[in-house]
Structure prediction request, 708 residues.
Amino acid sequence: MLYSVIMAGGKGERFWPLSRGHKPKQLLALNSDKPLLVETIDRVSDLVPLDRTYVVAGEALAKPIAAAIPGLPPGRILTEPVGRNTCMAIGLAAAEIGARDPDAIMLVLSADHRIEPASRLREILAFGAELAAAEDRLVTIGITPTRAETGYGYIETGDIVARKGDLVASCVAGFKEKPEPRQAQVYYYGKKHLWNAGMFVWSVRSIWRALESYCPVHFTALSACRDHPGESVCREAAYQQVPDISIDFAVLEKASNVITIKADLVWDDVGSWLALDRLHERDRDGNVVKGTVLSLDTAETIVVNDEPGVVATLGVSDLVVVRSGAITFVAHKSRLGQIRNLVQKVSVEHPDLV
Amino acid sequence: MLYSVIMAGGKGERFWPLSRGHKPKQLLALNSDKPLLVETIDRVSDLVPLDRTYVVAGEALAKPIAAAIPGLPPGRILTEPVGRNTCMAIGLAAAEIGARDPDAIMLVLSADHRIEPASRLREILAFGAELAAAEDRLVTIGITPTRAETGYGYIETGDIVARKGDLVASCVAGFKEKPEPRQAQVYYYGKKHLWNAGMFVWSVRSIWRALESYCPVHFTALSACRDHPGESVCREAAYQQVPDISIDFAVLEKASNVITIKADLVWDDVGSWLALDRLHERDRDGNVVKGTVLSLDTAETIVVNDEPGVVATLGVSDLVVVRSGAITFVAHKSRLGQIRNLVQKVSVEHPDLV
Prediction:
C-alpha cells in the first residue's frame, strides 16, 4: 500500500513575523488561501487517503496541524521530541508505518513547497512507487531546472534505467551541494543536473535496509521505536541517542541503489519572502500586495498586511513590509539573508514575539 | 496689558499617521514629552498668564486643546467655523481681545514650532512689546539664519530703528518668498536677511488700524465680531464673507510701519518627519528612534512606534517608518514632499484613517 510522509518540522524563521513558533511556514497560506501543508496533502489525495497520511513535526505543532487537517485520523501526526533532521524524521515514519504495514511504500514530501501541476506530480510519484515496489531502490524526484539557481542542491543524472510514457528514471551519478554561480550555469546548460527537491519514494523495507547499512546508530534507536509504535518514552530515548544528520548525507550519498525521476514540474521551495515575487501576481510596478495596502510611487516591493487597518507606502522600492500581530517588519530585499540574526535579536529582548 | 495669541489651526498632514484630524501636529509631543502647543504656552508663561492666553483653532480641536491645557479659563479658545488663514485668525483674536481690553498688546505665536532658549525668546518678545506699545508699529520676529534654507520665507532688514542691550530692531525692506538654492545662499551669506518665523507683536489698536486700511472686507466682518464678542452666529457670518489670505500678504507686505527684531534663537518649524533628525539625538548609525524598535543594519532612518509590540527593521536606510493605531507608514525620506497625496488617497478609501 502507498503511504505519504509529510515532513513538517520546519521553523520557518525566514517568514517572520508572519511565521512564528506556533505558526511556522507550512501552516501559512503563502501560495493560495490554504496553508502550504494542506496544499501538500491535497495534491496527493487522489493517490493516498488521509488514513495513510503521516505528518512528522515537533510536539508544539501537533495541535495546530490537527486543526489545519480536520479529517486526519488519530495517530497520524508523528511528533518528534527534538528536531534531529530528516534522517531521523524519515526513519521514525518508516518505523511507525513499518510496524503497521511491512510492505508499505512511502512517499516522502515536504510540507512547505509549491508544486504544480498536481496531476503531473501524481503521475511522477505513481511511477516512483512502481519502481520502488519492483526492486530495492531509493527513488528521488529531480526537478528540471528553469534557471541557474545557486540556492538549491543538484542531482547529477547517469544512465536511464526505466521509462513510462514520457517519464524517465536514471541512475544518480552524484549529489552536488549548492553551487557557485559559474557552476550553476554549467549545470543548467549541461542538462544533466536536476534540482534536489527533497522528495523521495521507497519501500519501508528498502529505507530500513539502507539505515541499517549506513546509519547503525539511527537504526538501533529506530528499531526500538518500531517495536513499540506510538510510545513516546521510547521515542524520546531514541532521539536522545542520535546525531543530527540529513537523509541526503546519511543515506543517499552513500547508497548505490539511488535513482531519480526527472520531473518537469513548477517547483519552489518557498524559501524566503522573495518567493512571493514568484508565487503571486505582481502589479505593473512589480509590487506584490496582500491585505489592505495603499501605495504611492512604490516599486518592486512586497507588502503583507495581516491585520485590520492599512499599511501605506510612499516612494520606496525593493522592500519587504510585513504587519502581523504586534509586529511591523521592514527589510530591504537584498538583506533578507540576515533575517535569522534579526529574529535572534528579537527573541532575546521580546521572546513572546518570536 | 500683554496677551498671547497662539495660532493652532494647522492640520499637520505632514506628520500622518501620528497626526490625524483629531490630533494634529500641535497636539503631538514631537520635541519633548509635552505637546508642541503646551511647550509654546510654557515658553511665555513668565510673560503672559493663562488668563490672557488665547488659542485660535478649528471647532473640532476645542476639546482636545482644552484637555491639553487644564488651567486655561473658559472662553480662551477662539474657534473658527472654517479655516481662512492667518489674517482672519489674527483678526478674530484682535476683535475678541480688543473688546475686552482696547489697549492690549498681542504676542502672535505659532502652536507648533520649536524655539530655544525660552528665556531669550521672552527677552525678545518683551522688547517687541515695548516697541509696539510706544508707537504705531507692527513688529515681526526675524530668526538669524543658520543655513541657506530654501523652505522658509525671508525678511530683508533695513536701517536700525531701536536697540535694547544686545537686541536690535530694524526697518523691514521687504518680505521674500521661499528662495531658490542660489538665492538662499545670497541671503545667508549677505547677513541682511532673516527667517520669517510667523511671530508678531503689536497693539490691538495698530493691527486694527492696519486691517481697516489694507483689508476692508476682513475689517468689516471682524468689526461685527468685536461688537458681539464670543457670539458664534456672528463669527460664522463673518467667516462666510472673507477670502482666505495670510497676514503677510494681506497686511505686512503693504504696511510701512513694519519693523523686525533680529532673534538669535534656535528655531524650527517642525515642518515634516525630517525635523525629527534635527530635534532628537541620533544613534551612531544616524537613526532616530521613538518607542519599541529593533534595528539591524539600519542607517539614517526615523522609526516611530506609537503602539505596543515592536517595529523591526533590517538592512534599510533613509526611511521613515511610523506605526500608529491601525496604520503603518513606510516612506523614503526623499519623497516626504508627496505625503499629502498619499493622505489624500487614504482619505478616499479609508476616511476613518485620516
Observations:
- The mean pLDDT of chain A is 96.
- The two ends of chain A are 40 Å apart (CA to CA).
- The CA atoms of residues 5 and 153 of chain A lie 21 Å apart.
